[in-house]
């Protein structure tokens, strides 16, 4: 079984980093901060950004923005960073991908992903950790047989399952021919006060 992870491909035509502002809506995020991740979609929480803080936006990977933080690349959901400090204006950056190989094996590629929502029950209980889901990606790119391999409870397993059902993939390839793939995806959840 393979664990699906996305790879970063720099966006051409986006030479200079842009400045963005951390956007927190009380409706969307009850926490006063936004979590940064090591790399999506299987990722480790690596810190927080405060609402209103400005950041350097380096590029885009699927539904994530790549930002600079303390000399390292970090990732945040696109909905967390605004072009304007006083209201939300999304960064609309291109996603360019490398050509897929014509020989050998190629893993499926995520072409659309959404993050899982942190539930109120998990927030109150300050739950953190990972939910791992097994899935099958058919030769046509459709997703089937999603099931929880390792969960956290508090509605987080269901939240991860619901998010994964919306993902879209390019299928795995064997010598350039689309083929069925069985693997796993991990969703990271963190609560305040649990990170260094």
Topology:
Elements: E1 2-3, E2 18-22, E3 33-37, E4 45-50, E5 54-61, E6 64-69, E7 72-77, E8 81-82, E9 105-106, E10 109-112, H1 120-125, E11 129-137, E12 143-150, H2 156-164, E13 168-170, E14 172-174, E15 177-179, E16 181-189
Parallel strand pairs: 1-16
Antiparallel strand pairs: 2-5, 2-8, 3-4, 5-6, 6-7, 9-14, 10-13, 11-12, 11-16, 14-15
Describe this structure in words.
With 196 residues, this protein is mainly beta. It has two domains: 10-82, Roll (SH3 type barrels), CATH 2.30.30; 105-189, 2-Layer Sandwich (TolA/TonB C-terminal domain), CATH 3.30.2420. 8% of the residues lie in helices and 41% in strands. It contains two helices and 16 strands. It has helices at 120-125, 156-164, and strands spanning 2-3, 18-22, 33-37, 45-50, 54-61, 64-69, 72-77, 81-82, 105-106, 109-112, 129-137, 143-150, 168-170, 172-174, 177-179, 181-189. It has a five-stranded antiparallel sheet, with no helix packed on it. The chain has a four-stranded mixed sheet with strand order 1-16-11-12, covered by helices on one side. Strand 11 and strand 12 form a beta hairpin. It is globular, with a radius of gyration of 17 Å. 30% of the residues are buried. Residues 1-15 have low confidence and may be disordered.
């Amino acid at each position: 079984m393979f664990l699906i992870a996305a790879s970063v491909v720099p966006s051409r035509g986006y030479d200079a980093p842009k400045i963005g502002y951390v956007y927190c809506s009380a409706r969307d995020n009850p926490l006063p901060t936004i979590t940064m991740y090591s790399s999506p979609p299987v990722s480790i929480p690596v810190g927080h950004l405060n609402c209103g803080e400005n950041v350097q936006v380096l590029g885009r990977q699927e539904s994530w923005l790549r930002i600079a933080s303390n000399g390292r690349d970090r990732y945040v959901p696109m909905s967390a960073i605004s072009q304007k400090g006083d209201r939300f204006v999304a960064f609309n950056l291109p996603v360019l991908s490398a050509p897929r190989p014509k020989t050998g094996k190629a893993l499926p590629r995520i072409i659309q992903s959404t993050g899982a929502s942190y539930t109120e029950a998990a927030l109150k209980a300050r739950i953190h950790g990972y939910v791992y889901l097994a899935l099958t990606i058919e030769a046509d790119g459709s997703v089937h047989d999603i099931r929880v391999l390792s969960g956290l409870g508090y509605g987080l397993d269901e939240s991860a399952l619901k998010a994964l059902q919306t993902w879209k993939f390019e299928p795995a390839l064997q010598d350039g021919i689309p083929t069925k793939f069985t693997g796993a995806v991990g969703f990271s959840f963190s609560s305040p006060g649990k990170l260094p």
